[in-house]
Amino acid sequence: MLTLYDYELSGSCYKVRLMLGFLGLPHETRHVDFHPGREHKSDAFLAINPLGQLPVLDDDGYVLRDANAILTYLASAHDPGGRWGFGGDAARNGRIAEWLGFASDLTGTIGAARLHDAFFHDIDADAARAGGKRLLRILDEHLWFQERQGAAWLAPGDHPSIADIACFPYTALAQDADLDLADCPAIRRWHDRFKRVPGFTVMPGVFPARE
Amino acid sequence: MLNDEQRRAWQPVASSTDLVARHVFAGAIWGQELALWRADDGHVNAWENRCLHRGVRLTIGVNLGSELMCQYHGWRYANRTAGCTYIPAHPADAPARTICNRVYPAVERHGLVWAALEGTVEGAALPELPMDGLVLRPVPVDVPPAEVEAALAAEFGRDRVRWLVQPVDAGRSIIRGVLAEQPAEPLPVLRRWSARLGRLRDRLEALPRPPVAPIPPELHRVDPALAGLPEPGPAGTSLRLRVARKWPVAEDVTAFRLAPLAGELPAFQPGAHIDVALPNGLTRQYSLTNGPDDTAAWVIGVKREPAGLGGSTCLHDAVREGDVLAVSPPRNNFPLRRDGLLTLFIAGGIGLTPLLAMARTLHLARLPYHFHAFARSVAHLPFVDVLDGLGDAVERHIGLDPAATTAKLEAIIGTQGEKHELYVCGPTPFLDAARAIAAAKGWPDTAVHFEYFKNERPRDASNAFEVALARSALTLDVAPGQSIVEAVAAHGIHIPTSCAQGACGTCRVGVIEGAIDHQDVHLTPSEKARGDCLMACVSRAAAGRLVLDL
Known about the structure:
Helix content of chain A: 40-55%
CATH architecture of the largest domain in chain A: Up-down Bundle
CATH class of the largest domain in chain B: Mainly Beta
Number of domains of chain A: 2
Oligomer: heterodimer
Number of strands of chain B: 33
Number of helices of chain A: 7
Largest interface: A-B, 19 and 27 residues
Largest sheet of chain A: 4 strands, mixed
Shape of chain A: globular
CATH class of the largest domain in chain A: Mainly Alpha
CATH topology of the largest domain in chain B: Rieske Iron-sulfur Protein
Radius of gyration of chain B: 28 Å
Number of strands of chain A: 4
């Protein structure tokens, strides 16, 4: 049985929920009171993840932390078609890894500014915002040229990858960090395409593309 | 505050390729946010980025192809006019025609979408651009437009690229360039320019300058014509529409496509009808057959009634393509719910017209429905091409005699499933039979929706009675042979009417007190039993006196 240690408002936990939705995997959810309870820093949770971070996935006793790691694992273990993960050619695999790294940068900038604005964490929010804005511009340019070449997703190929899943939450939640996507039209269109992938789920602050 | 130049100047607000199908694009001119969306028919809409209901940005809404849905309460707005077509919280009601978002003029030319905060599309004064130019990737810059203009001219000149700077706000711009010549291999050229403009952006943004205050959004008051209550009195045939096409759609049925002389038609909803003033002085009501994806011109179907008073024969024989007709704004007394789990449409002959508009609406929204079309013969079935477009949902019942029709209706209607809705329209005996069957099978009359073309019930206007108008503080007499509409009109109070025979529902008036003699065919039995409204063109007091909410 899959068990997700989850916090509803976390963009990183949302990555795993998206993946579980796309793969249609039944799972249990353990709600961790990140705010205001700081349960992720409790002794009980530190025993599960010494880093005190969400999300954590438990697959029948195989315990894994870090959203990118969990996405990679789920794609290897539970996606028989190998559509989402590192099942393709080398060039595609390289790009997926590249954008997974970019997703971590998004968490460290937009995610950090959002932690400051919405969860009152002591972070230099303006520096985080400036960093986030720079990343959004790079992502928008990449996606604009992808569109131009008839490509819908971050990595090459007709099917979205875990890179799209990893980069979606904190770009879709940019508004929470006071970053406007109006200047990133290609990102907004990519969001629309991503929201129409069967199995897509929403979270607070992320709206569906269809009724 | 914006000046006139800022308001009237046409600005490029998007590349044509930005407005992909089923997407809502975020644009802006001088701090005024725009929601731009392309409908499935290709029309580009530029609306104020604000749902007039609760002020939520429409750019987070959903482009449904022919309507835009606000993300908050699901209000739907029509392509072209931005008129409200549906309010999910009031599924049984037709939204007032006054509910309309603010629309900006917009045109698409040279691979760009242009908009202005004021003015009309006809007056669009756009710069001449190379027609076959290559539109570069737009690059947003957090720098005042004038500075960007100067820097572009100094950096790149104007020979190879036509530069356009979109003023997003006082301190924000978007660089849009159109390359004079279409290169054989556009991709590397586009990449080169994107990189160049990115470097220019970084350099300009790094220059020291005092902070520039953003221009606040101008929140316009609702147009007084929309904010007020509708004018009392007959709605009037205020629109002038040209017969763009006249063609036979069945034996004895002619269709007319009515197009505006200029601008756009007002918003309409499925089930709506219009009054058409005819050259021979008569006024007739016709249902619109259009779906929400067909908003450029209205299509009505007119059945020739040789025994009638000459309305239909006038349209058939005298009105030609190119003629201009006076037509009323659409009025909807036959609204369509969109929350049924299954909707049954049962159409007899030309009664198909309003149901066609409804079925097209559900079809586009991919909501479940069945459409049953009854006709005397295959040749008598109108709008077959539209029915064909609805595919498997349509069942045709041809040439049945009255007994077979009743048996078929029995089979179709059955017992009501959970949240099933029934819509019936057709000749009086057909409609009566369908309603009687539904009632006998236990359908509540809140789920049975119908519209009669005319009131063929015997009517009796022989009594005299008194009406007290509560709001006007007037008491007056209604004489034998006189209707309530006529009696109050003599005292300067106008009740809007349309069919004047108790069929269409336009003259509905609230009743505060008194027993009503209902003589219409519009209200359901339970509405009549409630006794809180009447059709003032035909209904009367059962005894003595009525107190009306007028």
